[in-house]
């Protein structure tokens, strides 16, 4: 979003989602690096919260597309950074590849929306949210309940179908998540037109908006920092 148009409520919500994501990754790092019990990362409560804050982050990214004059450029930058992360995390010294994580998804969605915006905007506003939610459910069921040939899945896995021995450290496939993003673009129209209560636009709070405004930077650097902190503490304990 342009600086003059920033809305603290949006940035604060994104900042909160980002903090929860960092906590989520910290917990899995404890499991992988420190041998912590798996249940602290994967349990019914955290599994639910994971999808809630990830969905919020994706929804807000779609919403913010309504404030951008060049979603294609933003998408290409995000996707290029995501592919750089794929290369780095696939190196033998790391060997924990991120093949299609949330940044890949967001980059793709921005590019896709930039190229097809007129088609989505042609859907009547009263129908759009119901259509997006229905497609979210239907495509989620489709991907999870159907199988495709293994060789085909190796080429189109970003859509959501996986193959034997498939692994990625972060996984947010296009289906069904793109419809959460598109739902955000629908909501963004009402925000841009200032059709929400005025308190939404005048809301302020400390810290969270500042975090939300640095979401891309924090996403890129948070895992190396967490790794360094955990490994550093381990080294200190042993010595």
C-alpha geometry: globular
Count of folded domains? 1
Spell the H/E element sequence: HHHHHHHHHH
Count the beta strands: 0
Largest sheet: none
Q: Strand portion, in percent? A: under 5%
**Distinct helical segment count:** 10
Structural class: mainly alpha
Q: Report how far apart the termini are.
A: 47 Å
What is the share of helical residues?
55-70%
Low-confidence stretches: none
Task: Write structural notes for this entry.
There is one protein chain. By secondary structure, the protein is mostly helical. It has one domain. The longest helix is centred in the N-terminal third of the chain and has 27 residues. The model has no long low-confidence stretch (mean pLDDT 92).
Quick overview:
With 239 residues, the protein is an all-alpha fold.
Topology:
Elements: H1 8-34, H2 44-64, H3 71-89, H4 102-121, H5 128-145, H6 150-156, H7 174-192, H8 198-202, H9 208-213, H10 215-238
Helix pairs in contact: 1-2, 1-10, 2-4, 2-7, 3-4, 4-7, 5-7
Keywords summarizing the entry:
239 residues, mainly alpha
């Amino acid at each position: 979003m342009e600086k003059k148009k920033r809305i603290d409520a949006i940035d604060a919500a994104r900042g909160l989602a980002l903090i929860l994501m960092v906590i989520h990754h910290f917990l899995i790092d404890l499991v992988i690096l420190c041998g912590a019990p798996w249940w602290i990362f994967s349990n019914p409560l955290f599994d639910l919260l994971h999808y809630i804050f990830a969905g919020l982050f994706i929804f807000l990214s779609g919403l913010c597309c309504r404030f951008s004059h060049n979603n294609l450029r933003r998408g290409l930058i995000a996707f290029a950074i995501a592919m750089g992360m794929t290369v780095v995390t696939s190196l033998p010294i790391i060997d924990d590849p991120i093949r299609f994580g949330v940044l890949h998804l967001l980059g793709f969605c921005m590019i896709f929306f930039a190229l097809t915006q007129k088609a989505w905007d042609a859907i009547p506003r009263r129908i759009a949210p119901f259509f997006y939610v229905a497609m979210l459910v239907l495509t989620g069921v489709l991907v999870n309940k159907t199988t495709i040939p293994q060789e085909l899945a190796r080429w189109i896995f970003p859509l959501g179908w996986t193959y034997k021995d498939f692994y990625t450290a972060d996984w947010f496939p296009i289906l069904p998540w793109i419809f959460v993003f598109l739902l955000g673009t629908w909501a963004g129209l009402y925000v841009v037109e200032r059709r929400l209560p005025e308190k939404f636009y005048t809301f302020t709070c400390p810290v969270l908006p500042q975090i939300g405004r640095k979401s891309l930077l924090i996403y890129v650097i948070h895992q190396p920092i967490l790794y360094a902190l955990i490994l550093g503490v381990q080294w200190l304990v042993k010595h």
